[in-house]
């Protein structure tokens, strides 16, 4: 498979896509409707192995937590490439939904979710800017720290 310009940008950032992104339950990793691609939530795992666990602790490291969200975004990109054939076929990132495992009253869920948002913006520029919801929850699958889903518009 030829490396896309987006994947070259990933490499320049010191990142790569995982070699797999398995589903943990009975759902599709993505569903396409016309030019819209709905990507199922992805936790912070690498090739199916969870890497960051929640809930976020009192003296957490923001940069490490943002890396967990970034890992979710890499899994989303893996599935976007599988659905679209190439990341070059992404026209726009429309929306992200981010979920952070945190105790009640934790104020920094949106800052953690920025790890995923910043990756999409770094890769796709203005087309990577998106609407977003970022909420804290009491738990996530596999006790993950973060889960992110997305809606992406593909080129016609």
TrEMBL record:
Span of domain Endoribonuclease L-PSP/chorismate mutase-like: 7-153
Q: What top-level branch of life does the organism fall under?
A: Bacteria
Pfam families from the UniProt entry: YjgF_endoribonc
Q: Which InterPro entries match?
A: Endoribo_LPSP/chorism_mut-like (IPR013813), RutC-like_sf (IPR035959)
Which residues, by range, are in coiled-coil regions?
none
Q: What is this protein called?
A: Enamine deaminase RidA (YjgF/YER057c/UK114 family)
Q: Which species?
A: Martelella radicis
């Amino acid at each position: 498979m030829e490396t896309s310009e987006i994947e070259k940008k990933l490499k320049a950032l010191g990142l790569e896509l995982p070699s797999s992104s398995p589903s943990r339950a009975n759902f599709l990793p993505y569903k396409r409707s016309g030019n819209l691609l709905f990507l199922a939530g992805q936790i912070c795992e690498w090739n199916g192995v969870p890497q960051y666990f929640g809930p976020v602790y009192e003296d957490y490291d923001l940069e490490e937590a943002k890396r967990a969200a970034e890992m979710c975004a890499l899994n989303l990109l893996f599935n976007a490439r599988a659905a679209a054939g190439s990341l070059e076929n992404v026209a726009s990132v429309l929306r992200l939904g981010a979920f952070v495992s945190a105790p009640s009253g934790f104020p920094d869920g949106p800052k953690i979710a920025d790890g995923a948002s910043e990756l999409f913006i770094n890769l796709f520029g203005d087309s990577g800017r998106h609407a977003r919801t970022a909420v804290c929850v009491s738990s996530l699958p596999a006790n993950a720290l973060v889960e992110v889903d997305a809606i992406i518009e593909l080129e016609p």
